[in-house]
Amino acid sequence: MALNTEQKTTLYRNLIRADEFNKMMYRRMMQGKLIGFYHPAEGAIAPGVGAASFLNQDDNLSPHHRGHGITHMLAKGIDIKYYLAEHTGKDTGCCKGRSAFHFSFPDHKVYMMSGFIGYNFAPVVGWGFAAKRRNQGQVVMNCSGDGSYGQGRAHEAMLMAQNWKLPVIFFCENNGMSIFSTAMEMHPKEHISSLADGFGMPSSIVDGQDVFAVAEASVEAIDRARKGEGPTFIEAKTLRFNEHDIGTPDLSGWEERSEEEHASMREREPVRIATARVLDEGILTQSAIDQIIEEALAEVQGVEDFADSSDIARPSVEQLMDGVFAK
Ligand SMILES: Cc1ncc(C[n+]2csc(CCOP(=O)(O)OP(=O)(O)O)c2C)c(N)n1
Ligand SMILES: [Mg+2]
């Protein structure tokens, strides 16, 4: 599905924002200004932006843990200051600073950002089922990594979604790695999307470094789902430039790739690819690009100022139970 100039500009802007926010998170983690740890998204910012930029406010989104969902959620329209305040353990965070990186933005229908791999497969089937019953064209975007597709519940979810023609998009961000294990070690076939064939589910493979290619495939799948034609599986082939996470003592600083591998991966950096494309197609001028970067940096600064000037969360024991369903 061809994208128009306005859509490409939106994608480019979101990609730059994702890049700057991810860099900010990395920097703050290294400065000791974040609680917990962070799964850097460098090299892998295009899948989330492409998958979520053209969802409606009313569509459900389950983000992938890389970047702690920042690329997906900013594209869905969340206010990032509440995301950073949460990661900084502040009262003003989206979960009052109590969640580290397990949180939701219910107003934006972004639910259950979690580090629990594969957590989302059962809920997305339920949301898809509810959406089908409501019959108002709502769709569910389920983003997860290659690692999660080894779980039984992923297969059950795909079976049910396809059987009931639910409006769920299984969006797989395949960076070829699950912490230290490669996708080749974990899956018998080269493409994770081949799983979809077994369920008779349509699938596609896209270059996950190309935000425009990701968005084209996503818009097509969203459209199918909205029309009641059922689920689609999208496999975005992407890369992980950094270690799995920073902040976990055994994982931080881990490095197995050679200089040459790093250099060739960086050729496939998503901002680099998108910038060449928007200039080449005459979608944006260099000065328009400079302005987008300037605005993104100002947004980052505003978000950091908000988090830094907020109070540290110091809930009482009674307050800790607020928002907990079972007491
Ligand atoms: C249920 C569960 N099992 C194991 C882990 C430990 N773990 C954290 S991230 C991860 C790998 C995830 O790989 P993938 O889904 O491909 O995402 P990526 O980190 O590569 O973006 C694992 C095994 C976990 N968090 N949850
Ligand atoms: Mg992976």
UniProtKB/TrEMBL annotation:
Residues 26-313 form the Dehydrogenase E1 component domain. It holds the Pfam family E1_dh. Its cofactor is thiamine diphosphate. Residues 247-267 are annotated as: Disordered. The keyword Metal-binding does not apply. InterPro entries: DH_E1 (IPR001017), PDH_E1_Alpha_Subunit (IPR050642), THDP-binding (IPR029061). Coiled coil: none annotated. Residues 254-267 have a biased composition (Basic and acidic residues). Keywords: Oxidoreductase, Thiamine pyrophosphate. Signal peptide: none annotated. PANTHER family: 3-METHYL-2-OXOBUTANOATE DEHYDROGENASE SUBUNIT ALPHA, PYRUVATE DEHYDROGENASE E1 COMPONENT, ALPHA SUBUNIT BACTERIAL AND ORGANELLAR. This is Thiamine pyrophosphate-dependent dehydrogenase E1 component subunit alpha. It comes from Congregibacter brevis.
